[in-house]
Amino acid sequence: MERQIIIIDEGKCNGCGICVNACHEGALAMVDGKARLVREDFCDGFGDCLPKCPVDAISFVTRDALPYDEEAVKEDQRKAHMLMIGLDPLCQWPIKIRLVPMKSKFFNGELIIGADCVGYVSDGIREGIAKGKGVLIGCPKLDGVDHSVKLREILMENDITKVTIMRMEVPCCSGMTRMAEKAITGSGKDIGLEEVVYSVNGKVKDKGIGMGPMTIS
Fold it and tell me: 87-205 maps to which CATH number?
């Protein structure tokens, strides 16, 4: 159907992510450092994101697009709300970064962020580094989203004093640490950062990072 929908000029977009947070429907996401319309059926065409963009990279266009699916938006928001009110800090279920709400009791002092692969190569994570803590998981390569924007907001909205990254030794996985560094810097808070790097055989490798010491489990 032909309808009004937003369009983002990637040449102007500076990757600040403000529009992503302004979109209540979840139609926008950060992809490769740029804001993109990832769910056109979630865009209602009202343009709450337009006045938030500091570089005027967003405008309206009338074109063929999927119809706005209000029920799907409400269901997505309902799931996010249930996570917000129901997550326990001792929850044994790791939560994908893209699914967790900005503010939750799930974040209990220390934020543990693990690459998806880590849980498959290492035994005893729940009895070691992540014991008694909630764990977020993601993949800097396959998720296709710059999680640093959401992580920055999580750090700003919650009382978090430390971030621990659990990642694999493969080069692409270092993006998880880079996103955490970017988020901490953007939050303006004094938050410690530690990293645990796992080899492909599940052993911890002794590697340090710029913003904090290596933690060996």
Answer: 3.40.50
Please state, in angstroms and rounded to a whole number, the distance separating the CA atoms of residues 162 and 155.
10
Radius of gyration (Cα) for the chain, nearest Å? 18
Instruction: Tell me the pLDDT tens digit for each residue of 90-136.
Output: 555 677 887 777 777 777 688 889 898 887 777 666 666 767 677 88
- Domain layout of the chain by residue ranges: 2-64, 87-205
Query: Ramachandran region of residue 13, left (φ > 0), alpha (ψ -120 to 50) or beta?
Result: beta
* Eight-state DSSP code of residue 41: G
The answer to whether domain 2-64 and domain 87-205 are alike in fold is: no
What's the topology of domain 2-64? Answer: Alpha-Beta Plaits (3.30.70)
Contact of 155 with 182, CB cutoff 8 Å:
no
